[in-house]
Amino acid sequence: MRSRYKWRWSKMTTPATTTSDTSVARHPRTEHILPLPHIPETVSAVRHRARTVLARWALPTETADDAILVISEPITNAIAHARPPAVLLLSMPEADGRHALRVEVTDAGPLPRPRRSPESPPPAEHGRGTGIIAALSMRHGISRHLHRMTRWAELHVASGHTGSAATASP
To answer: What pLDDT was estimated at residue 126?
Structure first.
């Protein structure tokens, strides 16, 4: 069933921010920006669109599969637990002489959370995202800015791959 929502991937209301991580230099031809509407269908749609972008960049299948898992975690959190607007930035920077796939999800910061009683057990279905990201990425982190937060991760891309098949998003 087709969604009734029209996705506009090339436009966004708030630009993605770079983190304070200064060892990263972006190559302008290997960057893609995807706005994240705050609706449940977003996660699936963004995974599909990200897979298309990664294939266009000719990333190895294993790297693309890992990237889809890494992408899913912060976008799910941004939609479920953060204030809009949110945006995903995919890029292929060169960090310390190595190529990496950089995943950044920027949102407007966390929503206020209801207080849980000290006796209630933690939810069994939540809380594993950071472990997944840590296992699949070379490095990851969170950058906090005034009125926004960026969760980022970098995945290793095999040497010799420069993302030359990539084009910038319109």
So the answer is: 61
